[in-house]
Every structure is written in C-alpha cells, then in structure tokens.
Design goal:
about 375 residues; alpha/beta; 6-stranded mixed beta sheet; 4-stranded parallel beta sheet; 12 helices; about 15% strand; globular
C-alpha cells in the first residue's frame, strides 16, 4: 500500500527514555534495544529538529492537526480527534478543578490520539494490518482508524469482552481473535507481528514498555491543549494509569513545551491513579518496575498485572506520585460525578476524582491548587454499564 500520509521532516529519530545516542527512525516495539538487553526495558521517544513550522504560541480550541509540527506525521487518517473541552467542575476543596473531556473524541476515548499516528506508520511500512490487545477503548479506536485508512485490523480479546464492544469491532471490519487469558493475547500478537507482518499498536512483550512509540506521541497533545487553556499555570494532572502511555505522553508534552519556550510555569505534577498497587509499590521501594503485580479490578481500562518504566518516569520526573483507588471508592465517585456534575465517566476515570481527598490529606495536593483530571472515556464503556 502506498503512503499518502506525510512523515514530519523534522523527525530525526528516537531516543531511549533513559537517554543515550539517537536511534534511527524505525520501529521499536520492545523499546530501546540496549535497555532490553541489559534487563532494564524502557520505551523510546521521538526527537525533532526545531523548525519554522512550529505553532506560533499555543493555539486554543484546535484539534490535534494543529500540533502536527510536534508529531511524527504532518498528516494522518483523521476524524477530527483532539481539541476536547476542558470543563470546570465546582469544587469546595481546590482552587480550581478541571476535567479534560476525552470521551468527546470520535470513538469516545483518549485512544483516538494514538491510533491515527500508529495507522499512518503501519501504512508507511506496508504492514499487513494493525493489531492490538484490548478490552475495549484501544480496539475500537484502532479498528475505526484502520477502516478510515482502508487498512486491515485485528483485535485480540478475552472471552469477557462485552457484546457491544464486539459488535463495534465487527462493524468496523476488524478481525476479533479470542485468547483464553489476558497475557495470552500478547503471545497471539507476537506471532502475528513476527510471522505475519502485522503492525503492533499495543505492547506484546514481557516486561512491557508500553504501546507503539509513534502512537504514544499523540498523547503529548493532551499536554499541549492543557497548556493552551491554562496559561496561568496548572499544579497537577491526575491520570488513570496501567502501562503509562497517557501519563508519559502528557509528561513528555509539557517537557517539550518547556524546552521550546511555550510553557513558562513549572511542569504540573503527574499523579498516577491505579486500582491496586503497582507504581505506588515501586515508589515505596517494595518492588521493581519489571515485577508482576497481582490484583483484580472492575476498572478494566487500567487493569493488568504489569507496569512500565515510562509510567514511573512520568511520576518521578514531575515530582508526582501514585495512588491506589479501589473499585468501591471509584463507584461512589462515578455516582457523585454523574449526579452532581452531569459527567458520567468510566470507572477508572472516576477513580481520579475519588483520589482528590486522599491526595489532599497526604499533602500531595493543596487547597490552592489548580488540578486537571483526564476523563479517558464515558461510563458506557464499562462492562457493567
């Protein structure tokens, strides 16, 4: 298949999150090769040359296309993703509380910032199609953008996949492959990638490093939009987190804005909200980031027994933290947000709202803070909805 999507000429290559030499433009599903060989797997990040096509200042209210000079492609199969509203919620315990309405993306989640860039890369390299392991949001988004681009898609799921999600995938033309257990999905993916020529959107290796680096670049645009809307500063961003694609992308986005002089205030603290101890356990020096973290949860979008170096770096490099919010706490927050604010979030996104009182109590937030929550998707995506 020919490549109609123009790669950004400012893209110089990729670099390990741990630093080091510039890696050539390419695909690094296992992250930095040297890091994985050394037993310290970490992802890679795109490196760009400064250029005259950069935005002049920070455009307000724009979609993701406005940030193309900061992304690996200048064009991609777009459905108008990005530019989601930043809604202020009434708060009695913070100076200002905002929620980034990512459920207003084309397929209803923040994954729409990642999928089109990964699909553009798959087209450029002539892949058989795009493949991911998903419980809902990522699969729906990838299948949608693949359909938009005329590219085959395959989504590897477990038997617990909700029927409405299965129907959406089928209508987008995705091939749905059922694996018995969650980690079995990664083995199915690995075979498709290494033997079948499929392009991986999500992680399939242990220890994991996160999703396709080309796609994760799209999450930087959340930071760009927050910065555009919060020119007077932002103290903290609360992010539902599993393997850290979103939280790392936001941290990297603010870092790039600071480097290019578009953000003068300190980078906001990135706070990872998780359903059971993973990053929080590592921060307490009770585990290594490459360990297995057993636990179960109804917060399906951030479930899983693994964590990543990128999620840890996002927290540490921004002086943030990680906090566990149980399903029961998230249930209460989900009801309160819907009843009091008219915002119905998926359970893991509501968990970020539930975290605020505990973060205040432990001193990670202050009552004078301006805080943003990432509303990853709406409650209709929860399996129990």
């Amino acid at each position: 298949m020919s490549n109609p999507h123009g790669r950004n000429p400012a893209l110089l290559g990729f670099r390990s999150l741990a630093g080091g030499a510039l890696l050539p433009v390419g695909d690094y599903p296992g992250g930095c090769p040297d890091g994985r060989a050394a037993g310290k797997p970490t992802s890679v990040i795109a490196v760009y040359a400064e250029q005259t096509r950069e935005p002049e200042g920070l455009p307000a209210g724009s979609d993701m296309q406005q940030w193309a000079p900061y992304l690996p492609y200048l064009e991609w199969p777009s459905l108008g993703e990005g530019g989601t509203p930043l809604i202020e919620l009434e708060s009695t315990c913070l100076r200002k509380l905002l929620i980034k309405a990512e459920w207003m993306n084309p397929t209803g989640s923040h994954k729409d910032r990642m999928s089109p860039l990964a699909v553009a890369r798959a087209i450029e390299v002539g892949a058989q199609g795009v493949i991911c392991a998903s419980s809902g949001n990522a699969g729906i988004s990838m299948a949608c953008y693949a359909a938009k681009a005329g590219l085959a898609s395959r989504v590897v799921v477990t038997p617990s996949l909700p029927k409405p999600v299965h129907r959406a995938l089928s209508l987008y033309g995705a091939e749905v492959v059922v694996a018995e257990h969650s980690l079995d999905r990664w083995r199915v993916m690995e075979e498709a990638v290494t033997k079948g020529g499929w392009f991986p959107l999500t992680n399939y290796l242990l220890p994991p490093v996160g999703s396709c680096a080309w796609g994760v670049e799209g999450y930087k645009t959340i930071a760009y939009e927050l910065a555009s809307a919060c020119k007077d500063g932002l103290d903290a961003v609360l992010v539902p987190t599993a393997r850290g694609d979103t939280i790392w992308g936001i941290a990297a986005g603010f870092a790039m804005l600071l480097q290019r002089g578009h953000w003068k205030a300190p980078i906001p603290k990135l706070i990872a909200v998780e359903p059971f101890q993973r990053i929080s356990k590592v921060l307490q020096n009770e585990a290594a980031i490459t360990d297995d973290f057993p636990g179960t949860t109804r917060q399906v979008s951030i479930a899983g027994t693994t964590a990543t170096d990128q999620s840890l770096r996002a927290v540490v490099q921004t002086s943030g933290t990680a906090l566990v919010v149980t399903d029961e706490m998230a249930d209460v927050a989900q009801r309160d947000l819907a009843h009091k604010h008219g915002v119905y979030l998926e359970l893991c996104a509501a968990a970020a709202y539930a975290a605020i009182p505990r973060l205040l109590a432990q001193g990670s937030l202050a009552r004078t803070d301006k805080v943003a929550l990432i509303g990853t998707s709406a409650g209709y995506r929860d399996p129990t909805a």
